[in-house]
């Protein structure tokens, strides 16, 4: 597996933002799995023909977003995506809301069913 990044120097979007968005999308889609080790800032800058500060700025933004994590001298890695769990929960909630609407349940009945299920799942 290799990092696949394309920077368009003629684009209106800044190179660091192009880099940030491409790594973020690849991490969120699973193309770059959790634990994938990213190249060093200098190494990626050389590969892409960018300034090291540009890559460092993208890495800082990605770390602030929780997409990557830096482990000191061990390197920079794709982080376990809390966002993925949030997205799955939101999708499940949307599917549930649509289902209970089709069933004709009231909002109160739907919420009551969720609360009962959560009590059962979490033990109380």
Mean pLDDT: 90
- CATH homologous superfamily grouping of the largest domain: Winged helix-like DNA-binding domain superfamily/Winged helix DNA-binding domain
The description of the largest β-sheet is:
3 strands, antiparallel
| CATH class term of the largest domain | Mainly Alpha
3D architecture notes:
The protein is mostly helical and 124 residues long. The protein folds into two domains: 15-78, Winged helix-like DNA-binding domain superfamily/Winged helix DNA-binding domain (Arc Repressor Mutant, subunit A, Orthogonal Bundle); 82-122, no CATH class. Helices cover 60% and strands 6% of the residues. It has a three-stranded antiparallel beta sheet. The mean pLDDT is 90.
Features:
single chain, 124 residues, mainly alpha, Arc Repressor Mutant, subunit A, 2 domains, 3-stranded antiparallel sheet, 3 strands, 6% strand, elongated
Explain briefly what this protein structure is.
The protein has five helices and three strands.
């Amino acid at each position: 597996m290799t990092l696949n990044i394309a920077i368009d120097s003629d684009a209106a979007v800044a190179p660091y933002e192009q880099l940030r968005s491409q790594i973020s999308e690849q991490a969120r889609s699973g193309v770059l799995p959790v634990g994938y080790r990213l190249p060093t800032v200098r190494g990626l800058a050389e590969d892409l023909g960018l300034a090291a500060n540009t890559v460092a700025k993208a890495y800082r933004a990605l770390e602030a977003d929780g997409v990557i994590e830096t482990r000191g001298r061990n390197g920079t890695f794709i982080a376990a995506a809390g966002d993925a769990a949030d997205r799955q929960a939101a999708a499940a909630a949307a599917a549930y809301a649509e289902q209970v609407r089709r069933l004709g349940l009231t909002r109160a009945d739907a919420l009551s069913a969720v609360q009962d299920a959560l009590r059962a799942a979490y033990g109380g």
